[in-house]
């Protein structure tokens, strides 16, 4: 069926990330690559692991739960990047390492509760809506401060960054203002770092626009199709 060469794709992607870093004088080692394996089979994930990739992102809770159960490898960090629902957080809280898509204080509260009962700590990123598209999710930029202030006393969630998705554009250059806005919010909200809030990660950039995202300050890119090939659905 598919003859996607995952190890070669990863190699090329690393060159692409290095080139983007070179353009703006950054160190490629500062960019964390999250391989987005949604819709792809376990064997593709295992191929990527063989090439040294250890961070994986999924956007459906049930799918992530299944993959975490089937692929037992404590070196892997699992990232949830899709829409959250309060009543489903329990399915992933016992294993997931990162959640990128927190847009409400009530989700943080539920993550704290579930992570506490599993005696673990989860890294959470607050998703901010930087695009014009409502369906992209994320809190409004002016809601961010209150969310961070509400989260400083958690013991099982590290609120360690921000995440954003740019409007899809044929020319990725068009996404630059949205990435720049998220970087500005990231910088201007450092003053809320206290207790469990410590904004260190800026998760922005996907297959289509990661070069521009890196130039604008991203240190975490979420890349699917450039590694695993095109998807039939999202
Ligand atoms: C699917 C997805 C990605 C990866 O998309 P590609 O264009 O395949 O790189 C990144 N982030 C989120 C939130 C996604 O849902």
Describe the structure.
- The chain is α/β, with parallel strands linked by helices and 234 residues long.
- The protein has a single domain (3-228), classed as Alpha-Beta Barrel (TIM Barrel).
- Helix content is 36%, strand content 18%.
- The protein has nine helices and eight strands.
- The chain has helices spanning 6-23, 42-50, 61-70, 89-92, 105-117, 144-150, 176-188, 210-215, 225-228; strands at residues 32-36, 55-58, 77-80, 98-102, 122-127, 157-163, 197-203, 220-223.
- It starts with 5 loop residues before the first helix and ends in a 6-residue tail after the last helix.
- Residues 36, 38, 59, 81, 165, 206-208, 222-226, 234 line the site of pyridoxal-5'-phosphate (PLP).
Give unreliable regions as ranges: none
From N to C, what is the helix and strand string?
HEHEHEHEHEHEHEHEH
Oligomeric state of the chains in view: single chain
| CATH superfamily heading | Alanine racemase
**CATH first level:** Alpha Beta
Q: How far is the first residue's CA from the last residue's CA?
A: 19 Å
